[in-house]
Amino acid sequence: MAITAEALPEVTATIADRIFDQLRQAIVEGEIPPGSKISEPVLAARFGISRGPLREAMRRLESSSLVERKPNVGARVITLTSEQLLEIYVIREALEGMAARLAAEHMSDAAIADLKRLLAQHRNDVAQEEWQAYFQKEGDLDFHFRIVQGSGNRRLANILCNDLYHLARMYRCQFGMKSDRARDALKEHELVVDAIAERDGELAEWLMRRHIRASRKATERRLAAMRPSDT
Amino acid sequence: MAITAEALPEVTATIADRIFDQLRQAIVEGEIPPGSKISEPVLAARFGISRGPLREAMRRLESSSLVERKPNVGARVITLTSEQLLEIYVIREALEGMAARLAAEHMSDAAIADLKRLLAQHRNDVAQEEWQAYFQKEGDLDFHFRIVQGSGNRRLANILCNDLYHLARMYRCQFGMKSDRARDALKEHELVVDAIAERDGELAEWLMRRHIRASRKATERRLAAMRPSDT
DNA sequence: GTCAATATTATTGTCGACAATTTTGGTTTC
DNA sequence: GAAACCAAAATTGTCGACAATAATATTGAC
């Protein structure tokens, strides 16, 4: 599933755009490991292109905060720290809470019915234990993705889908993330959808925020367990 | 006042970065009017540079959603619609509400004292009617800026300061924006700061959200008054 | 006279090469 | 032996030129 806010424009015309997509995927999935220096000549050679389009793609990656760049020195893939990951959760709590509120107001009945079907599918998956952690989490993103789309606020959707979700996915690829929270998360998803179906925006926001907060706390616990020597 | 999240790096080394700043300012302040096509050759000539750095700057402007770009066609300065402006208010309500909550938890006593001094200054300005609407609004942005910085969440601050605040400022330059809400807004600011001073994060968030919602409603009324034939 | 097809022009996209800065390696000196 | 200084190599930043695509103007046919 491609996570983009706009309708995906089939074949992207320009090389820079295509390279941007490929590089983003490579970075998010860890193929280009965090902290590694990005050499323009070798990357250009690897993709068989010139440095011009590559630099334009890098500028976009920089704006997405997937690479850090120092003038006259070069670019490195970012290394997500625990603090930065938790910062993202806080922002998602604010934005997706608002998105749930808006979705309750704007989402069409048909879209809500679709969403319910998706949750039924997830419920089935969880019941049958057919959820490798990875796929479960992708399903989780799928749920959040639909709520955000349902908000009807395109800029809100862009912020989440173009940047934050990629960063979240990058973190999940970096650490193993076999969530033992699947059952709880699913229950929380159902509550959110119920509130949306009843057009109760205030409740939907409250439930979504609590859901993301719970995910953040679970992540905090996991981080604390991984590195007990850290601050 | 330069609105940037990072500590401004004095003289930006590379041309592309400098051009990005200049172009952003020119677009935000309306020097390059909304909807106008951006021709790479003429702009490059105007700045006395080559097209390479210019294109890199354009890619960053695209990421900031200040220009829209179609492959093989070119880039145009965006034209903020009423709907887009209101979308921004909604996002600010979510993000700055969260920022106020975090500020109540993280801001230092010294920073809060500074903030109170700033509000006292504003109060004085308003009492003396020394507030051309424009300056008042800049003061407004200054207030919001400090809260966001006080949140301690760097990514949150980046989203607001690097993108949303520029868009808000662009709109204000586009339409005259002589706010008659200065007195009310100031009162609302004071309530937010009081809540922060008392370390009441929940209340601070609630007050900040109500404040931004009130600003949005005022803008909605102004928009409705300007174009009564619109939907 | 109007519409359509075609040729021309202009603009964007891409490339290779040069200049400037940084990093690295070596040499010298204390 | 270590530190500092200098030189060489590599990398980034910038530029001008070519290729490909889209917009425009022209010409022809009906």
UniProtKB/TrEMBL annotation, chains A, B:
PROSITE patterns: HTH_GNTR. Signal peptide: none annotated. Residues 13-80 form the HTH gntR-type domain. GO terms for molecular function: DNA binding; DNA-binding transcription factor activity. It comes from the Bacteria. Keywords: DNA-binding, Transcription, Transcription regulation. The keyword RNA-binding does not apply. This is GntR family transcriptional regulator.
